């Protein structure tokens, strides 16, 4: 018997291989990574955000293939750091504008919009985990194909970094969850379970929010664009300090 979420009609799992969804902001200085920017500066924070996004795009292509990758974008790439490389990287992607008031609503709409287009399970990730690999995302997709309604990958700060949904109507529960708090992960899982979902725990990751996170993730994944950008930004900051 198909379960019925509290806020929507009963729908079964969608068929077909999973697709990837990245929900991201255009890495414009002053609009992204503001906590990181408070220490590193807004220009460096935007370059790091662009590098993290490029790493994430690569991981999604590795996991799903570019033709099965979707980007829900907030902002204009024309003003973004590394706009040329970002534009080239997503040339074969389906790019959708984010819509809705507040982050939770934008996540909900992004999941529903992509599920409606792809008619497939959706594995959604943000732009804060450049260490995530294609294999990490494939494992999430595999759990959906094995029968889970949802796969939730916890972040070390209490949030979550990846959400896989086999039933698109489950995205509606996100609208009732307060995002970007130490309780977001637990509350998202509780909301999914209250809607009748079978929820599986995915791999845990550390989000990049501040300089300590950036240094940790760069050391953890030294071959990423993010790590290379972090090394360059650190060298430039050191050189600037010496000049002063």
The CATH topology? Spore Coat Polysaccharide Biosynthesis Protein SpsA, Chain A
Low-pLDDT segments, ≥5 res: 1-11
Mean pLDDT: 91
Strand segment count: 7
Annotation field: number of helices:
8
How far is the N terminus from the C terminus? 69 Å
Q: Which CATH class applies here? A: Alpha Beta
Q: Describe the largest sheet.
A: 7 strands, mixed
Layout: helices, strands, pairs:
Elements: E1 19-25, H1 34-40, H2 42-64, E2 69-74, H3 83-89, E3 94-97, H4 103-118, E4 122-125, H5 134-145, E5 150-154, E6 160-165, H6 184-194, E7 199-201, H7 211-220, H8 225-243
Parallel strand pairs: 1-2, 1-4, 2-3, 5-7
Antiparallel strand pairs: 4-6, 5-6
Describe the 3D structure.
With 244 residues, this protein is an alpha/beta fold. The protein has one domain (19-243): Spore Coat Polysaccharide Biosynthesis Protein SpsA, Chain A, CATH 3.90.550. The chain is 43% helix and 14% strand. Strands 3-2-1-4-6-5-7 form a 7-stranded mixed β-sheet, sandwiched between helices. Helix 3 links the parallel strand 2 (69-74) and strand 3 (94-97). Helix 2 (42-64) packs antiparallel against helix 8 (225-243) and helix 7 packs across helix 8 (225-243). The longest helix has 23 residues, at 42-64. The relative contact order is 0.18.
């Amino acid at each position: 018997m198909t379960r019925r979420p509290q806020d929507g009609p009963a729908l079964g799992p969608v068929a077909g291989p999973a697709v990837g969804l990245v929900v991201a902001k255009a890495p414009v200085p002053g609009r992204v990574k503001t906590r990181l920017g408070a220490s590193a500066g807004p220009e460096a924070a935007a370059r790091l955000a662009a590098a993290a996004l490029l790493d994430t795009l690569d991981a999604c292509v590795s996991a799903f293939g570019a033709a099965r990758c979707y980007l829900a974008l907030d902002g204009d790439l024309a003003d973004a750091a590394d706009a040329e490389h970002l534009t080239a990287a997503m040339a074969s992607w389906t790019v959708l504008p984010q819509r809705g008031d507040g982050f939770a609503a934008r996540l909900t709409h992004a999941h529903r919009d992509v599920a409606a287009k792809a008619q497939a399970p959706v594995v959604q990730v943000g732009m804060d985990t450049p260490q995530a690999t294609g294999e990490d995302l494939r494992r999430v997709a595999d759990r959906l194909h094995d029968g889970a309604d949802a796969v939730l990958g916890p972040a070390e700060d209490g949030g979550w970094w990846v959400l896989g949904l086999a039933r698109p109507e489950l995205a509606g529960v996100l609208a009732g969850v307060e995002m970007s708090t130490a309780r977001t992960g637990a509350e998202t899982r509780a909301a999914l379970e209250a809607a009748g979902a079978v929820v599986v725990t995915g791999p845990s990751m550390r989000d990049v929010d501040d300089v300590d996170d950036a240094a940790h993730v760069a050391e953890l994944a030294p071959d990423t664009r993010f790590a290379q950008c972090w090394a360059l930004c650190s060298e430039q900051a050191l050189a600037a300090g010496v000049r002063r």
